[in-house]
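Now for a typical sample entry:
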Amino acid sequence: MLQHGPLLERLLAGDFICRVTDEDAFRHLSDEQTQQDINHYLRPLNRRLVASDDSSVFFLGYQELTKQAREQLSSQFALTVQSLLPLLEWLQLVQETLGRDSALTAGDTIKLQEFVLRTEDNQSLRQRLNQLAGDRFFNSQSEQLDNQVKLIFRRLKEHGYLLQPHHDRQYYIVTGKIDYLIEVIRFIRDEEHLPVDDTPNQEALL
């Protein structure tokens, strides 16, 4: 398992691995033999390799839902729910601002300046962005649109939803963690019956 050591360390640390974040690692994880090897190693740890429904991102899940696993999942679930609404609003805002017909998915590119310019020209979008930036998940203290947008995108990059290939160029690529997030939202909506689809726009997004 030495050849998979660094990859296992990343997965155990909670990384989400997709073509955008690491194409080589993603290719390795897409191999059936590698999946079997990794799951064999992880079994005593009560962990297993999991892929999103469309296999766009890999991450770790639990082999069996023991008491300890349930407690850990409950903690993770609580954190996800806290960030759920601002992330859902951001997804919707990007879709409307950039005139997209569908929700963001792994590999999509967002140009920061284009997003800022289109938001500046629409008072309704500006108000929504201002409210979103002030949410505790993003916690912006600025009233300047440009600063608010930069902070939002920086926070999303820190949480693994966006990748900035070049620090001196203001464009971002959506990672597979967005696909995971949308699956979580759909699960909560369908199984937990939480109000994440209060508006027609949110329902259409999902």
